[in-house]
Amino acid sequence: MPYNKLNISGAKADVLAWVHHDLSLDEQNMLRNVSRLPCLYKHVALMPDAHLGIGSMVGSVVATKDAVIPATVGVDIGCFTGETLVPTLDGKSYSLKELAADDKEFVVYACTESGKIVAAKATAKKTRTNAALVKVTLDNGAEIRCTPDHKFMLRDGSFVEAKDLIAGESLMPLYRETDKDGYVLVQQNYSGRMQKAHWIVARSGLLGKVPQFEGERTVVHHKNFDEADNRPENLEFMSASEHSAYHRRLVERNEYWQAAEFEAKRKKAISDKAQTTEGHAYFAARGTKNILKYMEENPEHFKMAVAANGQRGKQFLVAYNQSEKGRTKSKEIANRLYDCEACGTKVKSGIGLHNHRLYSHGYNHKVVSVEPIGTREDVYCLTVPEYHNFALDAGVFVHNCGMMAVKTPFKSGILDGKLKELRHEIERAIPVGFNHHKESDWHASRWAGWENFDDLHKGVQDRKKKAMLQMGTLGGGKLPRAVVTQ
To answer: Global pTM?
Structure first.
């Protein structure tokens, strides 16, 4: 296929292009900058599918001499503005700018393709300066500002760039709540059931192997007694008996629990809670459970206690329902409007609100709109090595960065004459091109999609086996990259 030699003003090396579209001003500026690299070898080549990237164009090939530099083939990185909040497993949420400035590893919520929510280690970095933005608005009122190319996780586990999201599209949700004891509960989207966050951390392998205690339950203990702090370093396994004994040994804490002042505060807190809608529902459910247990364990006594209850109360109930006050009250309850806490919609009746929550918010967050923003800002993102996605405080999962910069202690003097050896070592560790691993990676082999892989790729012998061995490689067209400073 013939190429064109592009005439780019200010370029210091030839730019050979196989593209079939007119280059934008940003693309021309990027090519001009790349052509001025002091280590450039001969020319810059532009493949037919080339488009704007970070560092250099995606689909460009930039050969270098006596140097290994970052982004020589261009990379796509989507990111978020600095104020974007990310929930971490310590029970708090932090802005991406804060996390990047802290420059430490932390734990976030991630999600598998099947909708299973897990805990994963992550790091944060500033990734672009003065980037173009779009605003994604969700049906829970959240607004997310990000680059147009950042990928959002759909409800089916696939990813779509922000600019291509469609109004009404369902995203993979993160639903959290706190129970009466202060433990964080997270909805598992593959089952719809709530799971305690500390067990999500444990089941994700961040505490090591879950131990088994003969004849006893395994308990996850919070070392600092903060049930919302689910950092791995704050959690430890215990048997149920060990856990109980540990708490009994806390004499000062137990004395405080038995103090008159504490008892007065406890009763007031229970009374205040009972006055709220949620508290009334909780105590009603708890009372129902206790009554049912009493009925089961003391059936004869219960029958005697409630004998003739219906006859005693019937006359009062009938009289009230037939009265003007009773009919007015029934009509008011049936037509009462409730505000949906997720989207603000007014829904008639308690049953209507329950159904609205279930069908509109019980399984996803939906996209309301995607709008370009005129302003430009510095943007940030996370790197989540194992799962490659993370949850935002807005309640949806997004893809992580495709690349991150890692500062090493090496200077050019140490590596002088060793670049070729270094490159070969990297290529031996990370197969490139048609090369592959000798054995499939454990994380790659547990992917649920292998079950239907052969049906999707018929006609090619051993496709599944080859694919498993090539997972975790760079493939063709990309090279490991590093930068060496003086």
So the answer is: 0.57
